[in-house]
Amino acid sequence: MEKIVLPEIQDLHLIDVYINNNGYNAAKKAFTKTPDDIIDQVKKSGLRGRGGAAFLCGLKWSFMPKTSVKPKYLCINGDESEPGSFKDRQIFEFNPHQMIEGAIITCYAIGAKTAYVYIRGEYHKWIKLLQKAIDDAYAKASVVVKSSVKWAEVKPNPWKSTVSIKLMLSYMRDGVTDSLEHNYSLFYSQHEPLPTVEQLKAATPYIRYVPKEKRSKNIPDWVMVGSKDQHDGVYGYTGFTWMFRFLLSGTALMIYSKVRKQNRGPFQL
Fold it and tell me: Which CATH superfamily is domain 15-140 in?
């Protein structure tokens, strides 16, 4: 019998090995079909859950309301709370990308944009292994994509000669439509006039994925950039870096003030 969940492939937990063994091809194929087609195919396959009840997966997916505007979520149980069950930690350690790929397909089929994986707290090792696999999958995904501006808002501040711009961007990420709100400020003058809403809507900004190790806590995982090659480095600064920059700037300003005070001549009446 062929082993599906834990095949005998060395280092299958590594994303390059997984991809070389047809990994993530099923997800790419799924994006060429409609969600209803995928649900029907899973129903016909007879695929069942492994949690103990052996409930039909396709039937369960079909219960998700299609007309509801409320957010939808996928919950993945990795607790191993069933008696004598020790399968989940093995998947997290030896074949995590198959679980991630299955989650991607499921989310697409039921219309969910967020998935939660429940792992018991004492599984420190497997939590780190799964997070590493997720980070590797994001890093391997299409990191730069084009977007279109759904709507734009321009709010000038004449007192400071600045303008606040808010954009709602729409883009395709690995075959799935997503959106991102981007806010930024610009200086304007007579030589550099305010951008119009029409100009902003006509633009085609790029959306770039930022790996976890290259961004600080205040930076989202997807950001708008001006070009494909912009910002290959680290996004944002840590709290310590901001404090160091602030102290360095303050010290330089104090030194400059003292030097200027010493060199200033007497006030002429």
Answer: NADH-ubiquinone oxidoreductase 51kDa subunit (3.40.50.11540)
Q: Where in the chain is the domain with CATH 3.40.50.11540?
A: 15-140
Q: Which two tokens stand for residue 228?
A: 């494909």
pTM: 0.60
Closest CA to 177 of 203, 147, 204: 147
Spatial CB neighbours of 177, under 8 Å, sequence gap ≥ 6: 170, 171
Tokens in use for 26?
């099923």
Helix 96-110 vs helix 124-140: angle between axes, to the nearest 10 degrees? 60
Tokens of 159: 């007192």
Q: 172-196, pLDDT tens digit by residue?
A: 766 667 888 888 777 777 667 777 8
Separation CA 76–CA 115 (nearest Å): 7
Token digits for 169?
Answer: 């961007």
- Kindly report, residue by residue over 214-261, the tens digit of the pLDDT: 665 555 666 666 554 544 444 444 445 546 666 777 777 777 666 665
Is there a contact between 19 and 100 (Cβ–Cβ < 8 Å)?
no
The C-alpha atoms of residue 62 and residue 163 are separated, in whole angstroms, by: 47
Return the exposure string of 230-255: e unless at least 16 CB atoms fall within 10 Å of the residue's CB, then b.
eeeeebeeeeeeeeeeeeeeeeeeee
Report the relative pairing of strands 162-173 and 176-187 from DSSP bridges: antiparallel
